[in-house]
Amino acid sequence: MNGLHAEVEVRRGGLVLDLVLDAPAGATTVVLGPNGAGKSTLLLAIAGLLPLQRGRVALGDTVLEDTAQGLAVPPSDRHLGVVFQGGLLFDHLTVAENVAFGPRATGTGRAAADELARSWLARLDAAELADRRPAALSGGQAQRVALARALATDPACLLLDEPFSALDVGGRARLRRVLTDVLADFPGPRVLVTHDPTEASLLGDVLHVVEHGRTSQRGAMDELRLRPATPYVADLVGTNLLPGRAADGVVTTAGRGFVVADRHARGPVLLTVPPRAVSLYRTAPEGSPRNVWATSVDRVEHGDDRVRVLLGAPVPLTVEVTPAAADALGLAPGAAVHAALKATEIVVTEDAQPS
Amino acid sequence: MRAGTTPPRPLVLLAVVAATLVVLPVVGLLADVPWSRLPEVLRSEAALDALRLSLMTSVAATVVAALLGLPLALLLARVQFRGRRVLRGLVLLPLVLPPVVAGAALLSVLGRQGLLGAPLERATGLVLPFSTAGAVLAMTFVAMPFLVITVEGALRGADGRVEGAAASLGAGPWTVLRRITLPGIRSSLVAGLALTWARALGEFGATITFAGSLQGRTRTLPLAVFVALEADRDLAVALSLVLVLVSLAVVVGLRDHWWNTP
After folding, report:
1. pLDDT tens digit string along B81-122?
2. What is the DSSP string of A28-73?
3. Which residue on chain B is closest to A150 by alpha carbon?
4. A101 at the B interface (CB within 8 A)?
């Protein structure tokens, strides 16, 4: 298949970006990292909008840039669908004209391009925006239009830069729903840049973590959660995320109800459970009985100063304990334990309303 | 404005004097206009020649300034190169240079004995000094910086990333320029063209130095006013009125661009 392969060395301001990104076709590769890590720079470099100091970008057998050969295909000929941060819509054109811009620029007639634009807008739940100006759009609407504009060029690869930044909860949920469908239908490589671990774990098949311009870890979410290579990965990526349903201060997930501090949440929610918010006991502890359950240990990963434990059914959670506690509890795969979760440590965020 | 920020009285007085200094001459000119004879004066051969010539040369100078100034503004705004700051400063030189010096400089280069003027005449027979083309050239020299600074400022203020977005959608550099860059700075472009045209229309010093004052060929409106002040005061005032009205129209037309504060 035609995967994206990018060996990129770029200097931009104080940042030195130096990494290799492999994004297979038919999968969503999430580039995750803190702000200023070089994620957007990476996308701009792949798109040909920032010159490489050194490196090679290829899409399948097509070489887009190779500094060793002095080859650089101009951005207009790369056939990459880029959704830029903030959308970067053309303010002087209507939404439909924005989406039709790519097809028009590559030779499609006016009427055909307009028809194509409107059909993409309809697919992205934005048909009613067609005749508006970008200035009259909300952040989420602008992102959907930007996505339609990128897809209308029939690109070989999708590159999305922080599509969720600056969106409110409703906008995020709606965009995520649209994006999930679009990504699933897109046959080429999909690269999504974000600093938000929640979006990363919801949309990504493969994660590629970037810190200070370099790859710090790559792999599936479970792998990262269990064996975080850096404190950033451990703290932000390694957090448990569970979909659930909230009512009256109780969230039901995996068939179990958990008491949470947030009494107002209602309907579909996401639970964020930091690995250190879970305590393990050999015997059932006293305390709020709803947030204590009996389970078993699936896997144990020993780090330098922490031990990560993956719990089995009924609630698969990654838990972090000190090496001393792990020894005292005799944690090993198959061991029976009781897990306790502190209500105040659970973060509840509203999720998409089913439509 | 908050109370208590009124400037000291003497300053208010000086401000009134300043405003009077700006407004009074124009009012005085209006008082001098031979209103009853105006149509007749403006239909005289000297007036019509000057009006026709000024319209033609100022528009031609604006077109030339746009064709040359736009690429220069794009270069200054979008391309990193050595000496860019120096070039940006030099481009603005005609704004502060006395126009008569500009005319003298043009003579040195393009006069019949000039650096380029002599070879040009030998090769093509074209003589620029004291020709209509020379008047257009003098106007272009003096007025083009208005277009360059206005457009360059707008380009630098515009979000260049949008052009990258257009390129990523398959648009080549010409398409990006035509469909994204220029429409994006439309109001500044219009303002720059209007300022350039107004400056070209009012050009006096460089024109008279480089192109002389030949009726129907190089005697534009300002030159005609100057000549008529001695011989036919009514004509001078009538032509001045035309220039005042054009200037007012430009200032009012550009109000959103220059003084859009409430």
Report:
1. 999 999 999 998 999 999 999 999 999 999 888 889 889 888
2. EEEEE--TTSSHHHHHHHHTTSS--SEEEEEETTEEEEETTTTEE-
3. B169
4. yes
* DSSP-derived pairing of the beta strands A206-211 and A28-32: parallel
Measured between CA atoms, how close is B78 to chain A, in angstroms?
Answer: 14
How would you classify the pairing of strands A250-253 and A240-247? antiparallel
Residue B152 pLDDT class (50, 70, 90 cuts): very high
Burial, A66: exposed, middle or buried (Cβ in 10 Å; 0-12, 13-18, 19+)? middle
Min Cα distance B230 → chain A (Å) is 53
Torsions phi, psi for A311 (to 5 deg):
-85, 150
* Contact criterion met (CB below 8 Å) for A94 and B171: no
Task: Supply the pLDDT for residue A158.
Answer: 95
Listed residue (A183, A158, A140, A157) closest to A83, CA to CA: A158
Taking the model in full, what pTM does it have?
0.78
Q: Is A92 in Cβ contact with B184 (below 8 Å)?
A: yes
**What length is written for chain A?**
355
Residues of chain A positioned with their CB less than 8 A from the CB of B182: none
Complex-level ipTM beyond the 0.95 threshold: no
d(CA A75, CA A292): 56
Nearest residue to B210 (alpha-carbon basis) of B141, B142, B140, B134: B134
For B183, which residue in chain A has the nearest alpha carbon?
A92
pLDDT for res A122: 94
Query: A84 and B171: CB-CB below 8 Å?
Result: no
**What pLDDT does residue B259 have?**
56
Q: Does A77 touch chain B (CB under 8 A)?
A: yes
